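subagent[fold] <- orchestrator: predict structure for attached chain, return tokens only, no commentary.
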Amino acid sequence: MSDVLTPADVETMFTRSDGGYLFARWGRPLAPVVFGVEDATLSVIRAAFEAVCHLAGHQMAETDPELGANVMVFFCRDWDELAEVPNLDRLVPDMGPLVTRLQAASANQYRIFRFDDAGAIRACFIFLRMDAEMVAVPADTLALGQAVQALLLWSDQAFGTRSPLGQLADGRVVVRPEVGAVLRAAYEPVMPVAARDPSHALRLAARIGLAG
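subagent[fold] -> orchestrator:
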């Protein structure tokens, strides 16, 4: 995919592996909370979410009036540790079978989204297993990548072959320009909070073109 997005490129970003088109953005400010890391890392993660929200034109809040926290990030060394998190099974039904699937797949990350009646994202649960691959990623880079993937309901294949992040000549890691363009277009007030028709990708592409 080039840095200049075509409507087909945008459609691919939200077309899932089963062939269906599915888009959703947040309908409320993000209120993240993080478990399983040292205090120094908390500010890094919050800064990453703030940066991506600013890029998208969305907001953050200290708390969500309905849920308290609506973005929950869980770090662990082994998936079995999730069974020890109090009341997690109330937030994420079938947590046991999910852990079994993640172990069988040797996965190191997983996201679960919850939606409101309008189809907008109302909560996101992010699970990260810190294997050798994940430990090798700087904390700010890891946090930025997770924030990008939490801001929209991207396709399960959207970033399978290429990260949403890029590196500048001075070494700084940033959101790739075309990914940032999609985020900004998706959060335009005139755009819907959710869509299942691929024609939505044409509208997104048009908004990106107007912004360009």
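orchestrator: received. Logging for downstream: The longest strand covers residues 121-129. The first helix runs from residue 7 to 13.
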